[in-house]
Amino acid sequence: MDNYCEDMKKKLIQKKEELGKVVESLLLEATDINVGELSTLDTNHLVDTAMDMLDREQITGKLESIKAMIADIDHALAKLEKKSDKFGLCERCGNVIENERLHAMPWSRYCITCKSNMDKRR
């Protein structure tokens, strides 16, 4: 494996470790939320409970995003390990992914053009 691939591999592993720490923090935050017992007579308590539920939904959304990013990182690492010649190529059009994009997000699967087109269709 050449130096470029080794550098990308290090970046990917470092990012995965960072995401692991974020997950730990989010899980701690989620378990610290105190839902308490519901009381139909205490409006403030109901509002607090609703806010806690929203916090949990936000945490769940963040965890889902992180899960997807970790899957992309694992995919990129597998490409580097098995087919380093496929790393850095857009999985949609086959063109080379822009160097700036790969340095910023080495787990990128698509070039900027394909990713933009895909995002527009959503």
UniProtKB/TrEMBL annotation:
Pfam families: zf-dskA_traR. A zinc finger (dksA C4-type) spans 90-114. SUPFAM superfamilies: DnaK suppressor protein DksA, alpha-hairpin domain (SSF109635), Glucocorticoid receptor-like (DNA-binding domain) (SSF57716). It comes from the Bacteria. InterPro entries: DnaK_N, Znf_DskA_TraR, Znf_DskA_TraR_CS. Residues 87-115 form the Zinc finger DksA/TraR C4-type domain. The keyword Metal-binding applies. Coiled coil: none annotated. Keywords: Metal-binding, Zinc, Zinc-finger. GO terms for molecular function: zinc ion binding. PANTHER family: GENERAL STRESS PROTEIN 16O, RNA POLYMERASE-BINDING TRANSCRIPTION FACTOR DKSA-RELATED. This is C4-type zinc finger protein, DksA/TraR family. The lineage of its organism: Bacteria, Thermotogati, Synergistota, Synergistia, Synergistales.
